[in-house]
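Below is just one:
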Amino acid sequence: MNISLHSMLFVDDEPEIVGGIVEYFGYRGVSVTGLTHSDLTQEQLFPQNNPYQAYMFDLCMQPVDGLDLLARVRERLPRVPVFLYTAYGNNPDNLHAAIDGDVTKVILKGSSLSKIYDAVDATYKGTIRVETACRKTFLGSTLSVLAHNLRIALSGVGPFLELIHNQLAELNPSGAYLSSQDI
């Protein structure tokens, strides 16, 4: 199965960084919509026609930071990978808040573009593989439970039919039942 990231939203407060990420990821085959935080609208965050497969936000921006955007995405799209991009990776408060917000991965600014791309690509593929495996396991266990419940229900039909047969036999001890031809 070929799992590839095709579209991502990247938001940073530095236009040069936005341009660099958009250009490099585009070179690698990923369509990135790059915006500065001041340009971001609700429609751009959650497009109706072509939803993003992943998001990457700068952690420290004003007035809306990456943690705020992470929370908004998690509220509507809990399973979509969200990456936080930061120069403040040694700030434990930010990292704890990112983990509490269920960030997919924190990527440090200053990493080369190829390392940033490789981290996003590998994490995206791993996230989707795990998600697919979980769905298959859930579907398999759900089908197993349904089959078990069906067996129980059907096993109850036999005794029910036997009960009806016995009651009919009590009502008509001769065993002669009316057929549809007799009616």
Residues 128-139, 178-183 have pLDDT under 50 and may be disordered. Residues 81 and 103 are 8 Å apart (CA to CA). The longest strand covers residues 7-12. DSSP finds five helices and five strands in the chain.
